[in-house]
Design brief:
- Two copies of one chain form a homodimer.
- Chain A has 415 residues and is of the alpha/beta class.
- Chain A has two domains: 243 residues, 3-Layer(aba) Sandwich (Rossmann fold), CATH 3.40.50; 65 residues, Orthogonal Bundle (Arc Repressor Mutant, subunit A), CATH 1.10.10.
- The first copy, chain A, is built from 17 helices and 13 strands.
- A nine-stranded mixed β-sheet of chain A has the order 1-4-8-7-6-5-9-10-11, with helices on both faces.
- The radius of gyration of chain A is 30 Å and the shape is elongated.
- Chains A and B meet through helix 4, helix 7, helix 10, helix 12 and strand 11 of A and helix 4, helix 7, helix 10, helix 12 and strand 11 of B.
């Protein structure tokens, strides 16, 4: 392993490697990225900057030497180092992953999801302070066979409240099932409620789903979703920035959420309590210029309060009521077209004003002649006769008993 | 009555008259406005332009003489005149109104609601064609004692679907009751469903409500709401542009809707089917620069489809989930302030990132010392000690058994 602090430690991109190639990134680079993720939580701005400039092995050397000006990071590295040697821990994690059939994906691998690189440009302030944990991942652990970049290349996140209602579960299922059927990967966080409904619907559609975890890929969280997550590992992908064995600490969910936002074309929030994680995810989605979609709900439901707040406070957020709206937002222009919803009375709606006046003058029962209709409609006789023939053609009016009467289909309630 | 076509027929404004003064507008002006409303439906662009330029009596003379270039209007006037003498019909309507205790309000009256004058500036295109029936009313028939301008001066319209659901009725009641309690007049259209719920809630709050009808003020429509409309006539106001006895023809509802939009500070649509009347009302509200408010609902409800379409298609439309949002929109700045909704975990939410890391490092059961916490949190010992004292002060962490433990209140579910 390199021990110098120069900037030559980064591997050149090299020829495009195939899926999980041996040697596309050096083992040293892989192990250093794992060790760095263990020394400082993923997304750390300083660490990412150093790696970007000097490569992972050199950055690891510097951190271990304590040769860094960021005192908070230096203190954190010292505290973590006291618990064990980062290089040994990284080797242990890589061996553990091998045993459970997981793999480590790093930026030089062909299957690296390049979209997460947009995180390097994201500037997110929360409560007036720049959020420090929003840089791209250094590495991603993966369980499942499909190449990561392929699975995420055409993906939509569907996320929301753990305490989902039947309404939210229903809306989630409709959207996620439809997306999966149309070969969109459904990405979510593996949690109870909306997340689980999204994953389940995608699996039910024989589609593809990715769970982005805040714990190791061998640590199903919540344990109540263990069977579901195992299914996802078999038929989809389980991914995480944290090495196998990592605990799902609370702050990791927020760090994790930036990956869900960055890796997908758009995010749908189905239900969310006020000030919940889903609401924070959406601020990342917007900061990344991804498509932010929100399903409204009953104003009487606490689980829709966060959704309505998003729609009220962020004009860029799109209200979606179901699959067709989501497809419209994320699909290529012209690929998906939806019909505007129509009321039951198409033919009446399409009428010009004069025809509408004439139609309304026709009595609900019995017949009227053209002169009577002209007087009642307040239109000239010539106009009325012209409009009557149009209304006859449309099937709204018919001739009967020497006058004009409503056709059967036109006899709907007035007003 | 004047029979000449000159432009002197309009009354000069004169000194400000008191409520329903005799002679504030001439009887001739009143009768001419009634006759004109009978000859051509209210809102007619040509008629309003002529009245604006030459006064009502002179305009009536011209229409009766057929001295107008607008051929559609000329034909309509001819057709209507064939059914009776407009001046006699107007006199009959005024006598009929007298008998039932209704009054006619015209622009020169002190109680004329001047806000409807904004309709003269409204340009509304529907399907690419300029809507021709959007000019201000020529006169308004009123049942009820309170001066019209006073009742409408501080008013909000609450309208929506006739086929309202229990959800819509509930949301309407909450909003209308609260508005009425705070001395906002609740304006609606007297229809079944949302309209009726809005009127009823206002009456229940001992507040004030105005029903704007598309039929004569003596012709309760729908008849199922006759008792409610009678109550409104007694405790609020029933108003209409059409003379007593007029039928609620279908096209009149759309013409009526422009008055609801113009006379109020804002309109709340609670439930609306796709392409429904409420949706069309909102395009008028927006064209008039009034506040357009929409209550979202379950995406599974056909009665919320129109609401969601409004929110999707008109960015100026404001999503409101209840009374506080409506008050925020229509109230004067600073008069109504609402608290942003908050999740249950305020203290955690307010934490800086380091404190959050330390808090999460504290074991769920048992205690840990500062060094253990520093290692787990990935922070320096000094930082951890500083943050621990903050967390103690906040009541999230407590000292116990020589270490630090979660305070009782902080033991909530993770993630």
């Amino acid at each position: 392993m390199r021990r110098d602090g120069d900037d030559t430690g980064r591997m050149p991109p090299g020829p495009a490697p195939v899926h999980r190639p041996a040697g596309s990134a050096s083992d040293e680079d892989r192990a250093a990225r794992v060790a760095l993720t263990w020394l400082a939580e993923p997304g750390n701005r300083t660490v990412w900057g150093l790696v970007h400039a000097a490569g992972a092995p050199a950055t690891l050397d510097r951190l271990i030497r304590g040769d860094i000006s960021d005192s908070a990071l230096r203190d954190a590295v010292l505290a973590r180092s006291a618990a064990g040697d980062p290089r040994r821990l990284a080797d242990g994690a890589l061996r553990r992953a091998d045993r459970l059939g997981a793999r480590l994906v790093v930026p030089d691998d062909a299957e690296w999801p390049v979209a997460v690189g947009d995180l390097s440009r994201m500037h997110l302030t929360i409560g007036g302070r720049v959020n420090q944990d929003t840089r791209p991942p250094l590495c991603i652990w993966v369980r499942g066979t499909r190449p990561l970049h392929e699975a995420l290349g055409r993906s939509v996140a569907v996320v929301g409240a753990r305490a989902a209602t039947g309404y939210g579960t229903h809306a989630t299922t409709e959207i996620a099932y439809g997306l999966a059927e149309r070969e969109w990967t459904v990405v979510s966080g593996g949690a109870f409620g909306i997340d689980a409904a999204a994953h389940r619907a995608a699996l039910a559609a024989n589609g593809f789903t990715v769970a982005v975890l805040a714990s190791g890929v061998d640590r199903p969280y919540p344990s109540g979703n263990a069977a579901l997550l195992e299914q996802i590992a078999e038929r989809g992908l389980l991914i995480s920035e944290w090495p196998p064995g990592s605990e799902p600490l609370r702050h990791r969910f927020l760090i994790r959420n930036r990956v869900i936002a960055a890796a997908t074309r758009g995010t749908v929030v189905v239900e969310a309590a006020a000030r919940s994680g889903a609401v924070q995810t959406m601020s990342r989605v917007l900061a990344l210029n991804r498509i932010a979609m929100v399903v409204p709900g009953p104003v009487t439901s606490a689980m829709s309060v966060g959704c309505h707040e998003l729609l009220r406070e962020h004009p860029q957020t799109r209200l979606v009521t179901g699959l067709s709206h989501v497809l419209e937002e994320v699909g290529r222009i012209g690929e998906h077209l939806t019909e505007p919803p129509r009321g039951p009375d198409h033919r009446r709606d399409g009428l010009d004003e004069e025809s509408a006046l004439v139609l309304e003058a026709v009595p609900r029962r019995g017949v009227a002649d053209a002169e009577q209709l002209a007087a009642k409609a307040g239109l000239g006789l010539r106009v009325v006769l012209r409009r009557l023939s149009l209304l006859e053609t449309t099937g709204l009016v018919e001739r009967r008993d020497g006058g004009f009467a409503l056709a059967r289909a036109a006899r709907t309630r007035r007003g």
